[in-house]
Amino acid sequence: MSGIADLRPLARRREQRAWYWYDWANSAFVTTVQTVLFAPYLIAVAEKAACGYTSDDGRDCARDLAVLGLHIAPGALPSYIVTFSTLLGAVLLPLIGAIADRTARKKRLLGGFTWVGSAAGALLFFVEGTDWQIGALAMIVANICLGAAITVNDAFLPLIAEEDDRDRVSSRGWAWGYLGGGLLLAVNLAMVLLHDTFGLSESMAVRLSMLSAAVWWAAFTIIPMRGLSDHPPVHEVAAGGGVIQASFGQLWVTLKELRRYPMALLFLIAYLFFNDGIQTVVYAASTYGQEELGFATSVLIGTILMVQFVAFFGALLFGRLAASMGAKKVILGGLVVWMVIVTVALVLPEKALVPFLALGVAIGLVLGGTQALARSYFSLLIPRGREGEFFSFYHAMDRGTSWFGTLTFGLVYQLTGSYRPAIFALIAFFVLGGALLARVDTARGMRDAGNV
Questions:
Q1: What is the torsional sign of CA 245, 394, 217, 228?
Q2: Distance (Å, rounded) from C-alpha 413 to C-alpha 27?
Q3: Apex CA 170: angle with CA 141 and CA 363, to 5°?
Q4: Which residues form the signal peptide (predicted)?
């Protein structure tokens, strides 16, 4: 039998190439809908429902919406929707991860969550006039399904790449995601900004853009669905009943056994801090640029697009650095750069375009790289057969605690009246995250998880 060639590396490379496309597919929905278009469009629809006009008419809408007996300002509606769906998703993700670990049909889970989520996203096209309720329900379903699908997708990483190859594979996936998301966002922003040229109303241009992102997400998912293989479960936790009941049993066992993986837990706490800092900087960048530095919307849009494409190269660069230095050292180096970014932002002169763009380049370089390597590094600390569960904890940590950074940003702004100390305050998240990550013993974590 020694003369038979080992074809497993070729099979893994084929699956890896297919796997990259899922980051390409879902990132377009994240950038076009979640990041740029959904919130301002839904606010306009909600204002019309509450007051009969929008703030674009030059009048402030002072009336609230009545939602389940609560009074909600139209401007706050998108934040409440995203927060509710994010917290609900954080509760559901561990169960979904346990189900993924107990089934060989992981592809069907990936496709099922994707296509339900993209169908919900496509319903945003029908949000017009005063029908904000359609948008609220559609976004809740789409956001939950997106989190579930990404959890299942990340659980494929340890199955299709050996330990010493995961940094490269994860980085390429993130790079493809930024490229795909940036390309569709550029097309959609052109359609929205030049809607008159295309004979469209601004509302129709926004609705078509959100529809295109949902279709993009659904259509490109066909590639990983065809290229990935179903992997049978390994090291299943003994639990009786059907898949759902057994998954609850496995989840309970895993929660009790988490103390056996202290390095994985320590990394998750570190990730809580530094990832929340990253997400808050990205969230607050446009507000900081417009309100504190006085840049026009066109400059901010151009900067967002630039960050997307720079992040493509940044993710690839970090993957190469990790191959020679190790993922942990490169992540720590990236966190130092994030500290420099928020420090420079504290003293950045008003309307200084070149330094602002340089800051955008720096964000792009470390944005994709730190997140990509965090994913691959965590995969080393996961016991085999528990990929779905542990990545569900990873994303639940991301989603369930993602309000810490924004709360800090808002409180510091409220106390100081300036966005400069507010954005600088986020340095605490990078310092704490980096200090905790530095204490993670990679070799011990791998031994605890039974990895090579």
A1: negative
A2: 30
A3: 80
A4: none
- For residues 430 and 339, the answer to whether their CB atoms sit within 8 Å is yes
CA distance linking residue 19 with residue 25, whole number of Å: 10
Question: Of 380, 279, 362, which is closest to residue 326 (Cα–Cα)?
Answer: 380
Per-position b or e across 99-116, b if 16+ CB within 10 A of its CB:
bbbbbeebbebbbebbbb
CATH homologous superfamily, domain 18-54+70-227+239-446:
MFS general substrate transporter like domains (1.20.1250.20)
pTM over 0.90: no
Residue 363: CB partners within 8 Å, gap ≥ 6?
Answer: 281, 282, 285, 307, 310, 341
Name the residue ranges covered by the structural domains of the chain: 18-54+70-227+239-446
pLDDT by 10s per residue, the chain, length 452: 455 656 677 888 999 999 999 999 999 999 999 888 888 898 888 888 877 766 565 566 667 777 777 777 777 788 788 778 877 887 788 788 878 877 778 899 999 999 999 999 999 999 998 889 999 999 999 999 999 999 999 989 988 998 889 999 999 999 999 999 999 999 999 999 999 999 999 999 999 999 999 999 999 999 999 999 988 766 555 444 454 545 455 555 666 667 788 898 899 899 989 998 998 888 788 778 877 888 887 788 888 889 989 999 999 999 999 999 999 999 999 999 999 999 999 999 998 899 999 999 999 999 988 989 999 999 999 888 777 777 877 877 776 556 678 778 888 887 888 889 989 999 999 999 999 999 999 999 999 887 76
